[in-house]
């Protein structure tokens, strides 16, 4: 699926503008601070298009792990800029895996929160 697209001799490394890298770094810091604040307060508020969810208890820790995976996803974009090797296919594959894993963990947190509120 993700294969090397360009021969090594024709390869030009990725260039990610400084503004984009700074935006990703700021988003990483904000996500880490928001998740840490949620852990500290004992509740984590998540808003999305159709509504909102507030997580409590163990669901917060599960959601925080999803935030950590999301942070790793964002960090890969920054790391890729500095990696001059012809391996963008590896980064794309790893980003796809991280994105799917983060969504799966977040859905697990929402489900765990739902189960704990039923009891």
UniProtKB/TrEMBL annotation:
Highest taxon, organism lineage: Bacteria
Transmembrane annotation, as ranges: 21-40, 55-76, 96-115
Sorted UniProt keywords: Membrane, Transmembrane, Transmembrane helix
Keyword Membrane: yes
Protein name: Uncharacterized protein
Organism field: Psychrosphaera saromensis
